[in-house]
Amino acid sequence: DATTTRGAPRAASPNGRGLVKALQSFLCCKSRPYELRREGEATHVPQDGEQLPARGVQDDLLLRRVFAVIYRLSGADAKEPGIPAAHERAHILGALELFAVPSALLDFCALYYPLVSGSSPSPQVLEQQRLTSSVVDNLLRMNEQALCRALHKFVRPTHDNVLLLLESASSVRQQGLYQFRTLLDYLLDVVTSISAVAHASARAAFIALLEADFRVDLSGKGKQRASSELAAPREHALVAMVSKLYEEVTLPSGCLSMKGDGERDAGMRESNKQEFALVENECLVRLHLLEHRCASLGGALLCQSA
Q1: Which candidate, 24, 54, 57, 69, places its Cα nearest to that of 129?
Q2: Which of 85, 113, 270, 286 could share a disulfide with 109, CB 3.0–4.6 Å?
Q3: What would the pLDDT profile of 29-77 be if each residue is shown by its tens digit?
């Protein structure tokens, strides 16, 4: 829709904009494969190295078809006949602004890059990781400047929001386990989404580490300048955020600890012991996964900032 029949680039039509809005909404709103179900489905606290079962991309037809659209737009299968040239694809993506939304790249990686640890990934998981990484790397090659801007718009507000939530986490815990579980869901989604980007593409992780006021020189010379600035003693927003999260999860006195009862917990414990035990266990599962995700993401970010 963004090219003529002769292949000459032209402006995207309103229909093309509609497709992009639909894709962006899908990436943002689609439930993540790693999301924990509620109401009794996530009742087992995993031990070290143990993975909770997750929904796979291959199990969802719509998920696979959306991936196929973005895969072809990125030119990951550029050798196939009928695929536009790289400059034409770059123009299409630029005109449609598919990944101009700050969270779009993170939403894409969260949906399509499976994070596994503690066991040998299956061939299907390895293939999905490879395909997703190829899409992200191709997107960066074609339109790095736009993705830089999008990631920069995401990093600082997310850092500030997470730190504000941590400051109020103790009071949220006092309100009861239901509110605490919602807070943990948000934090787990943030950490897992960033971790998926960091593992899918080392270059994307490097860009995400840059502060919003850094200007990336796409000629290649700017990378050396940015690297020297990365060596400055100040800590980067993502590293600081993940370090703080890990500390609050692991310390017995941390604001994300399960100690004590909230205002409504005592009543629920007495009136419905089974429901209380279920919600309490769901919070423990989230805390366990958040701890492991923070450790994995912290290692990936530190490798990029070194």
Answers
A1: 57
A2: 113
A3: 888 876 765 544 444 544 544 444 445 566 678 888 899 888 888 876 6
**pTM of the complete model beyond 0.85:** no
CA-to-CA distance for 102 and 133, rounded, in angstroms? 19
Tell me the CA distances in angstroms from 225 to 39, 147, 207, 216, 218, one per residue in order. 51, 19, 13, 9, 12
Residues 6 or more apart in contact with residue 195 via CB below 8 angstroms: 115, 293, 296, 297, 300
Tens of pLDDT, residue by residue over 260-293, are 666 667 777 777 777 888 888 888 888 988 998 9
Which own/partner pairs from 116-125 qualify as long-range (CB within 8 Å, at least 24 positions apart)? 116/51, 117/49, 117/51, 117/292, 117/296, 118/48, 118/49, 118/50, 118/51, 119/49, 119/51, 124/56, 124/58, 125/56
Distance CA 51, CA 139 (A): 30
HSE at residue 95, side-chain half, CA atoms within 13 A, is 21
Radius of gyration, CA atoms only, the chain: 21
